[in-house]
Amino acid sequence: MKKWLMICMTLLFLSGCSLTGGNKPQSSSSPSEQPASSPAASPTAEVSTAPTNEPSATPVKKLTKEETADAVVQALKNKDIDGLRELIHPTKGIQFSPYVYIQKDTAQKFQKDKLPSFDDTALYVWGEHDGSGETIELTFKEYYEKFIYDHDYANSEKVGADEVIQTGNMVNNIKEVFPESYISDYHFSGFDKSFAGIDWASLIVVVEQYEDNWYVVAIASSQWTV
Predict the structure, then answer these.
(1) In terms of residue numbers, what domain contains 92?
(2) DSSP string over 36-59
(3) Is 50 exceeded by the pLDDT of residue 154?
């Protein structure tokens, strides 16, 4: 009986120890005690300071009236149609006249985006031949060779500053058609001495101002006429 009593007391003692001893449960941390999050765990958006690649408008280089006329002649010399288009008046376009008398109602006229190329095979009516009155019907390339750049006008003998240097019996009405224009006359006094100067020739470039810049509005040929 005493032995059984000793066993019971021992068991009671051990059970009491198990209730008061052992690992205490960990309490949850307060929000202020939470460890700081790693930068890698919560990345923040970076603000780029690199320059943007947005296209900006390229300013048009302003040319004087003389520079514009020279640029037209140079584009003609180089057969640079794209360069010539950029020099054409934005609203009036460009007129071509085989003589200094411009038939304003019938002269061949093109807007800058409609100017023919040298590969264009279409026939255009450019006016009438002096003397015969026959219709001048040519492709743009043929007209260029006969009535525009038939001589090296980029290296002409003289350039008339707002004047037509020489005329035959053909009436010059350029200033009547384009009263606010500036005229550059690229002139040769002649090529063969035996002709006593009647083989003179000019390329006349007519420019007008538009929004603080100058553009070509007409190109005329001038030579001895009967």
Answers:
(1) 65-223
(2) PPPTTTS--PPPP-SPP----PPP
(3) yes
